[in-house]
Amino acid sequence: MPALNRVQLIGRLGRDPESHFTPTGKKVAHFSIAVSNQWDGRDGEMKEYTEWVNVEAWGRLAEVCQEYLRKGSLIYLEGRLKTNKYEVDGEPRYFTKVIAQSLQFLPDNSTGDTVVEKGKVIDEGEFELREVS
């Protein structure tokens, strides 16, 4: 049976990435992004809801995240969902995150700043930044 597990998000980092190395020597970075949705309410006022998403990046992508991303950075992210199960006092708990597969640094129109050149993408399987048309 065919299956698809793909996530595409645009959001701002809620904190600087934190990274460490696994016992096998692979680098992993963790950060969260805020994805906001705005709409006009029935009363005519602008409403907003923000969803916080936990993200995990591995290998070269983790290195790039650690080096270039900071709290407030605007990014486009592609990845897949992964849910981990753990127990607290015998009760099962679940934690869902996005495993990043590629990301793009987006220009920050509110300040005119970019972390790196706009239109650059880094993929999990590639070790270089490439131009996006």
Characterize this entry briefly.
This protein is mainly beta and 133 residues long. Helix content is 8%, strand content 56%.
* Share of helix, binned: under 10%
Cα separation of the termini: 34 Å
Protein structure class? mainly beta
Order of strands across the main sheet: 1-3-4-6-5
Radius of gyration: 17 Å
The overall average pLDDT, rounded, is 86
Q: Describe it for me?
A:
With 133 residues, this protein is mostly beta strands. The chain is built from 1 helix and 8 strands; from the N terminus they run E-E-E-E-H-E-E-E-E. The chain has one helix spanning 59-68; strands at residues 7-13, 18-21, 27-40, 46-58, 74-88, 91-105, 120-123, 130-131. A 5-stranded mixed barrel has the order 1-3-4-6-5. Strand 2 (18-21) and strand 3 form a beta hairpin. The longest helix has 10 residues, at 59-68. It is globular, with a radius of gyration of 17 Å. Mean pLDDT is 86; it is low at 113-119 and 125-133.
List the helices and strands and how they pair.
Layout: E1 7-13, E2 18-21, E3 27-40, E4 46-58, H1 59-68, E5 74-88, E6 91-105, E7 120-123, E8 130-131
